[in-house]
Specification:
367 residues; Aminopeptidase; 14-stranded mixed sheet; 12 helices; EC 2.3.1.-
Length: 367
């Protein structure tokens, strides 16, 4: 379904992700490398192709200069021209992949793509064309492990000595009271993946949040990425076992050098042992040994992230909106709710009260 249009000095082809050829994907990755940005797997072409298999509105605008690609803009198109970042809701890094020096006018790009708006909630830093339309800047903590796990552990002992000591003590207690503790970094265990999804769904419901695994496209996307063998974008299931029973698990997405912390969960029956934190320390050690240089914990506040992180990246939330009827529909449908969330998030006391309310709603829903 190739569509052609023009930007000043650029030819734009709009394709379905499955219409990208091997040369397109190779060029996408080369341009991404030239940009110097972290090799986040969510901005790899394979993630866009996978989303395209489960989301019929997925598209890619290919920007060409003299017949050669100089940029790729993945997105999803909805009714009335309402667009969103590819995989919005589960993608932790969003934006366009552009050759250094290429400049865009965001609204003109949307026009040639037939979009009235384009929404993002984890726009990576350096995306100037879209960042001008952001309404909030968020911290996205990361853990740098490029120098090896031992170097990171020394830093962790210095900045959070109690955290590390207590977590290791709980791991020993788990082994004494439950059984031998075993960690598998890259597990091929369908039962453990099912357990992870059940624990995570229960967590979403318990905290009054939307259950992502109740959305078929997300479970299908996880299954697709879990089968990938591509080193630039593949799912990794990590499992912590006690007495050969899964007690915590994490399904993440990795490239050669970046692992995104995506879907972590644990069995609440073992909560007193903090199995999620035990798993995370084991995962950091194994990932560093496997060549991962950075674990991206994703935006959103969490106490354990503050204990583990080495620094913060910046990501942005907002939307590019054109002055057309579809843009007005987007604004009326999304911006008031976004403003309310921002108001609450910036007031810790109010945010804590909101979290308690959501948990109570989740408890009532669960009966």
């Amino acid at each position: 379904m190739t569509q052609e249009a023009e930007l000043p000095g650029k030819r734009v082809l709009v394709l379905r992700p499955d219409e990208l050829g091997p040369s397109d994907q190779k060029m996408w990755r080369e341009i991404r490398t030239e940009s110097g940005a972290p090799a986040n797997p969510f901005l790899d072409p394979l993630f866009t192709v996978a989303v395209g298999r489960v989301r019929p509105g997925a598209r890619v605008a290919v920007l060409q200069d003299d017949g050669s690609p100089v940029g790729f803009f993945p997105y999803e198109a909805g009714v009335l021209g309402r667009g969103r970042a590819i995989g919005l809701g589960v993608s932790d890094s969003q934006g366009a992949v552009l050759r250094p020096g290429v400049r865009l006018d965001a609204r003109r790009l949307l026009r040639v793509c037939g979009l009235a708006s384009w929404e993002f909630d984890n726009l990576e830093a350096g995306q100037e064309a879209f960042a001008a339309h952001a309404v909030e800047e968020l911290d996205s903590p990361v853990v740098d492990i490029g120098d090896g796990f031992e170097a990171y552990a020394r830093r962790l002992r210095a900045q959070s000595p109690g955290f590390l000591r207590q977590t290791l003590a709980k791991e020993r207690k788990l082994a004494r009271q439950v059984g031998e503790v075993r960690f598998v970094y890259d597990a091929r265990d369908p039962g453990a993946l099912r357990a992870l999804m059940e624990w995570k769904s229960a967590q979403y419901r318990r905290t009054g949040r939307q259950d992502r695994f109740a959305q078929e496209w997300i479970t299908r996307l996880v299954a697709l990425l879990g089968r990938s063998e591509d080193p630039e974008c593949r799912g990794v299931l990590s499992v912590l076992y006690a007495a050969d029973r899964p007690v915590a698990a994490h399904f993440g997405l990795r490239s050669r050098t970046v692992l995104s912390w995506w879907f972590p969960a644990y069995d609440r029956a073992y909560a007193k042992y903090s199995p999620g934190l035990v798993l995370q320390l084991r995962l950091l050690e194994a990932a560093a040994a496997d060549g991962v240089e950075m674990l991206d914990l994703g935006s959103g506040p969490a106490r354990y992230k503050e204990s583990l992180k080495t620094r913060d990246l910046r990501v942005y939330e907002g939307a590019v909106v054109r002055a057309v009827p579809g843009g007005a529909v987007h604004w009326l449908g999304r911006e008031p709710a976004r403003a309310a969330r921002r108001f609450v998030r910036n007031r810790p006391g109010l945010a804590a009260a909101a979290a308690r309310t959501l948990e109570e709603v989740g408890r009532l829903r669960g009966g």
